[in-house]
Amino acid sequence: MPDEIRNAQVQLGTALSQARAGEDREISRRVREKGEQFAKIFYGLLRMTRIHSLDNVVFEPPIQDFRSVLESLCKLLGTVHLICVEDQVYVNDVRIRFEIASEHVEAIGTDLRRHRIGGISFHDVITEKQILVLVGMIMESPAKKSPRMAFQRKLTETGMSSIELQKIFSFRMKGERIHKIDREFKEVYQQSARIIAEAYRNLAASRLPNPLPVRRLVNEMIDTSRSASVADLARDQDRQLPHYARHTLMVTNLSLLIGGVAGFSNATLSDLGVAAMFHDVGHSLKEDGYWVPFERHTTAGLSALMRQRGFHEAKVWRLLAVVEHHRPFDSPKGRPSLFARIIHIADDYDILTRFRPGKGPVLSYPDALARMAAHSGKAYDPDLFQVFVNKMGMFPPGSILRLDSGRLVISVSGARSRKTFAKPLCQVVRNADGSQAKNRERVDLASEDRVIKVLQPSA
Amino acid sequence: MKNASHKSDPKTPSDSNGSTLGPDDILNPADAPRQKDSLGEVDPKGAALPKTKNQSIPSGSDEEEIEAEVGTTDSGRKASEALIALGRAARSFLLYEPDNQAVTSFLQDLKDKFYGFLDQYGEMVLDIRPWEMVLGSEVVYLNRDRERSLSFRLFRDGVRKVTITPDVAWNELTKFLGIISIQYTGIRQQEDDMVVMLWKAGFKHIVVESVEGFIPEDDDDVDVDTAIYSDGDAAASALTLYSAAPEGFDMPWPVYNERASIRYVEMAPEHLRKLDEEVSNLALPDQCVGLLKEILETAANPVEPLKLEEAIPMVQEVSNFLSAEGLLASLLEAMQMVQTLPFNRSDEEHRMELLRAFSDVNVLLSVIRSFPTGLQEVPPQLIDLVKMAPENPVPMLLEILQNERTRTARWVTRNLLVGMGSDNLDHLIKTIDQSKASVAADLLRVVSDIDLDRGIRVGIDMGIEADLELQLVMLSLMEQGHYSKRVGRYLINLLESSSMDVRMKALKLLVHHKEPSAFSSITQRLEHNASGNELDLHEIEALGSAMVAIKEDRALAQFIEWIQPRKLLQRMLPKRQNLKWAAVTGLSQIPGDQAKEYIRLAAKAPGEELHRHCMKSLVRQRRLGMEVRDA
Lengths: 459, 631
What we know:
A: 16 helices; B: mainly alpha; 6 strands; 56% helix; 4% strand; disordered N terminus
């Protein structure tokens, strides 16, 4: 047998067994079995409402069965997705086959589509009474305005916020926007706020986190960041976004910056980015109606994210990052994981430098860097911190500087090289005479002028 | 909207993604039933796979799951063949183990077909549609089964275009195949979909364009759960939602009063490499243990709301991973954490559940399966792990022994059972009776390793009808154990075994112990097989020698009788070659003229072979006589 065929077999075998590490064929078989039962009982319940009123005892056995199957599936999968796509019905990734192909599919899909629902995600087991209510709601007439939203609101009012309704899905290529890697970084950044909000909303509503859409976004960020400048990455793109979202995005960007300079692969960067996106999810959670206190937001995040089923190394890194991202480098509990150490640097840097309306930032960019540097080796991994410093330069992007010439400028680049470490590219804000600079004039400190003072931005 | 061309789904044999036949059921293509599945290319005569580059894969059935061979132009047909080969190779991992010969053939076919196209026609640019792939304007792949279709798998996850350039490396193609194959087998991949995996692969010569998977249709329904956060206008609610975190969520700020100088420092490549190693697969087990520590310490912390019960699924997943990789030290470390952390008393039951999860039959099986063949020593960590199991591990080990019959598994499990000691001896003995023969043989070994004489007694009680393997085990035990009359009787019974190997070994032991009561059995055995081919010559000789070893004088008398029977009737009976042969062999071991005389007499009987045997025996006997004289 030629070597390269043999090598390919070995490598494929390893890759597949690693991919299967979080599951086995027995689980696959059980998911398929239970998934089929789940879809068919659901279909049966919908049909029964056409014949019997909801208070009829005939509903009791199938509802009990449905709950039992749902419980088994939640245990196996975490979240159970019942999705109707055109003429197909899926329970998670498994297509459900029916004996008579079209009839059952049509019924489930049609009933849901009346409410502009393409699928239902069960993030937790619901009671038998709630199942009956759900089935009844599906068979009711849809709301005239925003039917899916109305349905979702009603679910929450009846204590079923763990049920998430999906939009109608389609396989059709209707004016799709093909992923292009030359999208503007800013465009990606702005889209990302929606994705973050979605992810955090689900967590806050006790739904299980789905990292996949976040990952796709992060991958796009990685792609577009290759052509973006450090300034784009390191400065807020949109001050209209709430602090929470901006902070999350900033930490993600800065983490990817550090990871990129450290030479991580795409796969590692992707995992790092997703971990950074979720690093502060604990803050969005509540205990007994109160926001989780700061000292417990890491473990709260860990608890929430841990509910995702299926072993994957990215999940391991992510959970560690969430729980350890405030832990000092020299912690007596042991060195934090790599992603946690990176996110720690990014997190603190953003916290110390983020502009707060009415208050301004805590510190200027150079000052923040200098103070953090004093804790390199103690709070922060010295190698990672140095990587960060090497990239940001003495006057990181956003630094407000007074030059020898009297001009007031803002740094718009990081360190472009060793030689330009303290000589960034700047944009002139005010001329020496105090007048406003025009036409976005730039000055390269590598070839002219020099910094004499760093200014603290005011509120 | 209904797809009018979609046929009803046929009943198909199963695979792990939906069918009753699991890949575990098939380890050898020769064993593979003739499926009407998408691998219906199996040759009914058994030569399932192409042996040479030019040999076409036998056409499959007319079932709809099979990709149709499409393509109207030459390039289209070649592209079609390549894509069918890709689909087959990907699905082969559902049916066969990766190192199976079948997979080898599929990979070779894939390579040949793909490079065949690329070398001739240059890059392959495929537009991905729900059930077809299009090259230029030509359909080159078609499979309408959305579960088995390669095209649908790609399309569903958002892949819209794939471009493979002519200089694509083989390892890139196999990586591509690996990604598709994972999707075929995966059921809980929430971390990656096809697009993400293709992106992560960072291909240089395979370019993928994509959208976001299932396409949600745009509608006016603002997808916001307003009831949770506020009433009122959806847009305002969205903003409220987006700011779902407490004011001052980022406080307290780090308080740093000192400053240090900032300067550029060149980073040594080895420092950066070390960072990367921290997220490699090698580092994963330690990180898993670290994570478990965090989770368990949080659950044990009375201030934290996390309950141990909530941690169980995650802990089980990690332990499954560690066991599948055979990472015993990490498993043990995790188990020790569970055992020693100060959980709440109300969590005791969950603690037990976790300890069971770390040492249940699936974990042990995974660990045992990860061992290489030819393992010389049971890892001490495995012994520790088994001993830490909260319940008696013997039933689990017995279950593994019953069901996992590889040599390594049997050896490891036997050793573990022996390690459990004599407390479980009675249980093991009881299980022997209820077990299949080869399992009983293993158990007998275990019992004997714990208590040899007891094992021998148990084996004897099982009787001569016991399985051949059991007989062989018994013989090896009897070689080591104490000899007794009972053992002797058992060995004599074994002279009637259907296996010559068993008979010879039994005979050897009887000779070694000079069991007098064996003499008549040996004699009878020879007389019952006086002529014919039931006894091998080697055995006949051994029997003859055994008679001499056990009772020389009696043997001499018997040999004389066989060579020259006194009774006329016996002289008239058909030739009793086997008896003469045994006698001559035996006589060659008895010094003296009488023995010599009868050997010569036997030599006169018809039969050239017997004559030759007599001549050789005479030489031997003479030599023996000289040795005796010298002695």
